[in-house]
Amino acid sequence: MTADRPMIATAPRRLLAVIMAAFAALISGAVMFAVPAGAAIDDIATDCTPDASTTCVSPIVLDENRDPVPGVEVSIAGEEFEAVVTTTGEGPVSVEVPQRGTYTLTVNTDTLPDDTHADPTERELSAQTGATARGAFTIGRGPAPDPDASETETETGAPADDPGAEGAEGLVEEDVSVSGLPSFGQVWQQVGSGLRFGLLLALASVGLSLIFGTTGISSFSHGEQVVIGAMGGFILINQLGLPVWVAALLIVVIGGLTGLLQDAAIWRPLRRRGTPAAQLMLVTIGLSLALQYALQWRESGSMRIITTNPVPTTIAGITLSRASWISMAVALVVIIGIALLLTKTRIGRAIRAVADNRALASATGIDPDAVVRIVWVSATALAALAGLLIGISFGSFTWNLGVQLLLLMFAAVTLGGLGTAYGALVGSILIGLVVELAGLVIPSDVRYATALLILILVLLIRPQGILGSRERIG
Questions:
Q1: Which residues fall within 8 angstroms of residue 293, CB to CB, at 6 or more apart?
Q2: What average pLDDT does range 409-437 have in this prediction?
Q3: H or E stretch including 251?
Q4: How far apart are CA 420 and CA 291, in angstroms?
Q5: Which domain holds residue 234?
Q6: What count of Cα atoms within 13 Å lies in the side-chain half-sphere of residue 289?
Q7: Statement to judge: residues 271 and 393 lie in one domain
Q8: How far apart, in whole angstroms, are the C-alpha atoms of residue 97 and residue 101?
Q9: Lower Cβ count inside 10 Å, N or C end of the chain?
Q10: Which residue from 457, 425, 469, 456 is spatially nearest to 208, judged by alpha carbons?
Q11: Residue 30: inside a domain, yes or no?
């Protein structure tokens, strides 16, 4: 691993990468995840603010210009619950429902403006505790289309644990051309969503790549380090009321301390015993399971770090929540800082030296154990920060977010080049773009499998990854 000179990949590593990618592609459909939709909601009479015990449902009615349509009645029906809300021109309205579950939203067509229609007129969505499930309807000019014609469905009530769905920006996903193909605006919106997903994924993946580069371990517990950061944000911000920036600093410190503790209690003793990398990888799997159960014991439901409704912000024609733009900026600055550290500082050169040749680095006076300890601390701190930003940007998360992210993190670092920091960034951006753009043309449930299929194809053509180098033998 180097920041400016990729690490040489060995044949066993290439084989492991292909096997890992194939395994990820086979089971990715079972671990799809999405983020609840979000939109700005003004302080009006029907406003519902989700918290740890509150579940909200919000119907959204927009015209062809994406502006709210006032005066439209929408009924909300669920188990032992039924209500009718009337939209306003100030923004979406929301109501509190008694429990999480499936709710049906139906537009009263008699209340639509003259010479307009809603397509469709009914939606089902899944409401989660601690989040607002939103169902969007677009009002078009002219008579309603033939009911026998094919309809394009857009998920607007995705479960709160699915980071692939969109918040306020998700409303743009319904902008479909007359031919049924995605419009330029929709594609451009998904490019922005892909960049957001890719940058946040890269922030977590860089640490995973650094660990592999210096130790040769594929850390399967790295996903739980992401959840530790998100869970820390939930406790510090939501429950204790700390400012976001204060909580972010504390979470980075806490994440780094978990890495230091792990290295002192587990990895350093095992390294001194000469434990093979394959056995160390099994230890990471056991640690991952232990952390999962601990996190589930702490909180098993959907958690929302910031309970206020997100504010949509449009930049360069891409609408994301303000929290998303800030998270992207923070992730980009941190990643650039990592690149500068690896290329411009003594510790960065020491990390690269240990990754390239541990014995030679030790012979030149570098302490490999100290370098590895720094890598573990840095990697877990970055993962914790990534978890906080993901939880804030995508609205909410669950205890098993780490398992769901792990496959894509492995895909990113393998696609970019095992053990390369820059490769993790490039691979993450590509994974983010492919995942979001694929959702425009294929069912949302299988779009992650598409990204992993591309990973397998790339590895068959270039096993060392995009930025990896072939091993020179002899």
A1: none
A2: 84
A3: helix 244-262
A4: 27
A5: 183-461
A6: 5
A7: yes
A8: 9
A9: C
A10: 425
A11: no
